[in-house]
């Protein structure tokens, strides 16, 4: 099965195409979508095992040798990210059934959902820089449609902003690729890496630093780092909960993955400027995200600003660039995808119950909805990084890497941010779940039991991920090895 | 030749930036159009503008122009076509629903309706 690694792209693509024909038959759509997401999950599990046993898998599309054709590469990092993506997608589907509404389901919701997964899985798997651009566009186009589907005023307004920002960043991506092509004359990532090291063997030429910073701007716009995060709080406020969970868990993380990939594979020679810039921006993202998270009394906004904090923490781990911090960044990346999806689901349930996102208008939910309350409580502790849960090991490794790399200030910021992140989510717990019991309009109609399945699955996975870190760390270490030593990646792709 | 192209592309980017900073939604979309023109011309220029035959093997020429940037541009063009079409329809719908094309007025704090 040499074609195994193409399955996470192919299955959602075919499903998306089939679902176009079923647009009026909602039950059939749901069955096909769930079936295909389970298939994707199984394929992703196989890929993780195969990469674990046999090393990096690379596939030359239509048998053109590596630098000349498009190559798909699945190393441990992308395999793990694809597995996480398919788990989140499955939970998101379950959640969508009872919350997205028939109108949206009839208008190609599941189809576009699957195309989004094509883009995300493709971006994680590709080994070609221009192909990465194309998969980015697949992902972004689907996200435009998912964002605006339903056509309420706030969605229309925020879609315009989101679309404009992404059109600009895509144009910048094309420009950055054009510059890189003119310097190195190739588009395959492994080959670019090789040429870049040849060029920078006698001192890093300025143009490569410029290109490195351009890539940081492009992927930073997608991944919402400081000062390029300004579009996110508004745009992510507009869509309904399952779409928001999908965006919050996957889209920004693709930007983070791309920064990690390009900086560890192409620009690792430039420790002086590019990595320092990345480090400073990551720390500032943490600070800005934390300020936003504690400033708002709006449940959605609080979690949205927590995305920025997490992006900052992961990129700080990448910028320190020693084995411990990279391991921490990979561990934290996967943890954060899972827990952000769970939190957005829970926030969606809270808004569904109370009919408002304003914390000051809700209280006493724990009396009637203990399941929601305790799931939210565990998810909050996991987000902040309390020991038995999943956020702990990642942050521990990042802080350890920071201290080893003599970056004490950044490590201290990461530690302090945990405290404020905990405060921001506990604010939701204390104000929303404790206090005076009150009843809300439309509360009885909310299908809480069904909606709670998805976050409970994710929180359980997150707890297992934290408790079983001994068993999982070999996989994470394998992912980190490739990032720390790009030679492994280059040899696997170019087969020298 | 590349230097001339660089200046032209620079002017395109300048106009695009200026237009995208304006208030009317249509001017912004025209700006994105100019931006993608600039980006596509930049790929062509960065691939090199040396003289050579069109990349068709039937030409039997001694040297050809670089075929790779042309393929990249073709891809980027259709993608930006798709996005622009979507953007234009979105702007039309937004004008119908919101009753304005001024981006300054596209704000507010109404709850999720």
Number of helices of chain B: 3
Determine the mean pLDDT of chain B. 90
Task: Provide the succession of SSEs of chain A.
Answer: HHEEHHHHHHHHHHHHHHHHHHHH
Main pleated-sheet profile of chain B: none
CATH class of chain B: Mainly Alpha
Helical content class of chain B: 55-70%
The computed structural class of chain A is: mainly alpha
Compute the number of strand runs of chain A. 2
Shape of chain A: globular
- Compute the CA-based radius of gyration of chain B: 19 Å
Describe the model.
Chain A has 496 residues and is mostly helical. Chain A has a two-stranded antiparallel sheet with strand order 1-2. Chain A is globular, with a radius of gyration of 22 Å. With 113 residues, chain B is an all-alpha fold. Chain B has one domain: Helix Hairpins (Orthogonal Bundle), CATH 1.10.287. Chain B contains three helices and no strands. The longest helix of chain B is centred in the last third of the chain and has 32 residues. Chains A and B meet through helix 6 and helix 7 of A and helix 2 and helix 3 of B.
What is the topology?
The complex is a heterodimer of chains A (496) and B (113).
Chain A: H1 7-21, H2 26-54, E1 57-60, E2 71-74, H3 76-99, H4 102-106, H5 109-125, H6 129-148, H7 153-184, H8 189-199, H9 206-223, H10 232-235, H11 241-265, H12 274-295, H13 299-320, H14 323-354, H15 365-368, H16 370-384, H17 390-404, H18 408-433, H19 448-451, H20 453-467, H21 469-484, H22 486-494
Helix pairs in contact in A: 1-2, 1-5, 2-3, 3-5, 3-11, 3-14, 3-20, 3-21, 5-6, 6-7, 6-11, 7-9, 8-22, 9-11, 11-13, 11-14, 12-13, 12-18, 13-14, 13-17, 13-18, 14-16, 14-17, 14-20, 14-21, 16-18, 16-20, 17-18, 17-20, 21-22
Chain B: H1 2-20, H2 25-46, H3 67-98
Helix pairs in contact in B: 1-2, 2-3
